[in-house]
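Escalated from tier 1: adenosine-5'-triphosphate holo job.
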Amino acid sequence: MGKVIAIANQKGGVGKTTTAVNLAACLAHLGKKVLLVDIDPQGNATSGIGIEKGDIDECIYNVLVEDMKAKDVVRPTNIEHLYIIPATIQLAGAEIELVPVVSREILLKNALAPLKEQYDFILIDCPPSLGLLTLNALTAADAVLIPVQCEYYALEGLSQLLNTIRLVQKHLNTNLKLEGVVLTMLDARTNLGLQVIQEVKKYFREKVYETIIPRNVRLSEAPSHGKPIILYDVRSKGAEVYLELAKEVLARG
Ligand SMILES: Nc1ncnc2c1ncn2[C@@H]1O[C@H](COP(=O)(O)OP(=O)(O)OP(=O)(O)O)[C@@H](O)[C@H]1O
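Tier 2 regenerated the structure:
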């Protein structure tokens, strides 16, 4: 059975999508069959992986709101072994449209269940909120990976997220584990970074791995330089840190 990892943090711009896209590409490069599920209405993982917005007929919206089968929305990407369920701006209304739906927190879990046997990893790129879409991701996931940008307000935001994760563990998904914390856009290990890690360890008994993604890692080497989300060529130096992260994810199993 494939492992489902939600990449979540309700804080905006902390590196969720950049981590999701590059981790997915690196896991695929290491020979794993990977499905990236974009549940952020901004659709940055979708465009970041190379799918033009005008080129999308069906997306995760049709799965969650219109009951379409997830397998019918999966698309191949230009990267071998990497597939995506795209998102479009249509998804922005889904949280309101789903209000009358009973068990609306488990729609994604149910939709992805038949795909778990077909992929080694399913990565879910969450939107910057703790709303219904993120709850669906946390409920569908086996583990959650938290990108944290180490700045002054990081700890406060993190404690909100960890509180939500604990509530999800209690009420919606007793199997949810913490996969790890990715400290993004850091130049070096700082006191704030260490404080963030300590905070996480207070909440979780599982061993949490820590990966540091430096700020502006050779952005100029990225083939999609100039786009908001950088998808590194896995052979480039910029991808090294994501390859290390992918190896840690594999080692954890
Ligand atoms: N390691 C990094 N070094 C420099 N810039 C980075 C790094 N990681 C991400 N960025 C940049 O920071 C911005 C936000 O990153 P990203 O979109 O991945 O965050 P996000 O948490 O998914 O955002 P949102 O909350 O809007 O979904 C992007 O412009 C991205 O290119």
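The first helix runs from residue 16 to 29.
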